[in-house]
Structures are given as structure tokens and as C-alpha cells.
Design brief:
The chain has 2 domains: 10-58 and 102-186, Pleckstrin-homology domain (PH domain)/Phosphotyrosine-binding domain (PTB) (PH-domain like, Roll); 59-100, no CATH class. The protein is 34% helix and 29% strand. The chain contains 4 helices and 7 strands. Strands 4-3-2-1-7-6-5 form a 7-stranded antiparallel beta sheet. The two termini are 30 Å apart.
Length: 191
């Protein structure tokens, strides 16, 4: 049973997640996979899955204010000035709307789950999402989605058929690092 990049259908991914959860609940270790990327000494790879990602963050947006040239009398100049002011307000409001914090697509991602972190392949480089930085974990297993909240970083959301499997690994690793009560608190449950 290994979750690897590009692997099969949703049903097989769900079955693998259920099987892994049962094994972990009965004391079995997480699967150990050979890594194709350089990990820290002693770090162990547990899964290599595909996902679609989002980040909740603001964005810098630049816009050009419309310019209007008015030639003519005072009435035409006044009408052109009013029209230009209105166009500037609309452009500024649209730029503010686009710049506001919101879920922004990261596209298709490769996610490696180790015992210490998630390694996410994004824009040609690996980014680390350290388990110690996760404050809350919000899995939605029916939607095959998990949202992670952090103390000092914008939230991440990942979705895809292998996210229930990845959620089992995340919770098992968090429990190993912090204890089951801390994981229950991170999941919003009462211990």
C-alpha cells in the first residue's frame, strides 16, 4: 500500500485511506517509501501524492487610472471630468477587490508527506510546510479536502482524491509529535 504520484481512482484512494487509518489505529507504523528527493537526515517519506492547492492571501495589484482629454467648452470639460472621476473610482475599487485576501489557486501540486513536514512542489521549487507550524487542521474528507491554519502564515487548502490518505498521515504525524490531545484540539474536537 503506497500512495504515489498520479495513482488511480477516488475509490482506491479512499480504500487506501481507510486501510491506513485502521492500521495506524492498531499501532502499525506509517508506510516508509524510498525518496526521490533529498530529505533531512533521519527524515522518512510516507506518501507522494497529487493535489490541487490554494492559499488565502492578499496580492499586489497595479492599475492605471484612466485619462481623458477634453477639448471644448466648460460643459464638455465638466462632463469629461465627472466621467474620468467615475472611471478612476471603478478602476480603484476593482483593484482593491482583486488585492483583498482571498483563496488564490496554486494549481496542481506534488505533495510529499514526511514525518516532519509536507514538501510541496510549486513553481519549480520545493516549499516546506512544517508540522510544528500547523495550528489547526480542518479536514473535509467527503470533499477530499484539507485546510491548514498557521500562526504566522496564510492558510493552505489542498484537495484531491488522495487527501483523505494524506490527512491520516498528517494526523498520525501530529499525534506522534504533539500527542493525541493536541491533535484533537487542532482538529477542533473535544479531547
Amino acid at each position: 500500500m503506497d500512495a504515489t504520484w498520479g495513482r488511480g481512482a477516488i475509490d482506491s484512494a479512499w480504500d487506501a485511506a481507510v486501510e491506513l487509518a485502521e492500521l495506524v489505529a492498531h499501532g502499525s507504523p506509517l508506510p516508509a517509501l524510498p525518496s526521490t528527493v533529498l530529505l533531512d537526515p533521519g527524515e522518512m517519506l510516507h506518501a507522494d501524492v497529487a493535489a490541487v492547492g490554494w492559499r488565502f492571501q492578499a496580492m499586489d495589484v497595479f492599475y492605471e487610472e484612466p485619462r481623458i482629454l477634453a477639448i471644448g467648452g466648460p460643459v464638455l470639460f465638466a462632463a469629461a471630468s465627472i466621467g474620468a472621476a467615475s472611471a478612476r473610482r471603478r478602476a480603484r475599487a476593482e483593484a482593491e477587490r482583486l488585492a483583498a485576501p482571498q483563496w488564490r489557486s496554486l494549481g496542481r501540486l506534488r505533495v510529499l508527506a514526511t514525518d516532519l513536514r509536507l514538501l510541496v512542489w510549486f513553481e519549480g521549487a520545493w516549499a516546506s510546510v512544517w508540522y510544528d507550524g500547523i495550528r489547526e487542521l480542518h479536514p473535509d474528507l467527503e470533499q477530499h479536502r484539507v485546510t491548514m491554519l498557521f500562526d504566522d502564515d496564510p492558510p493552505y487548502a489542498l484537495a484531491g482524491p488522495w487527501l483523505p490518505y494524506l490527512t491520516v498521515i498528517l494526523t498520525a504525524c501530529l499525534a506522534a509529535r504533539r500527542g493525541t490531545e493536541a491533535v484533537a484540539a487542532a482538529l477542533g474536537a473535544n479531547p
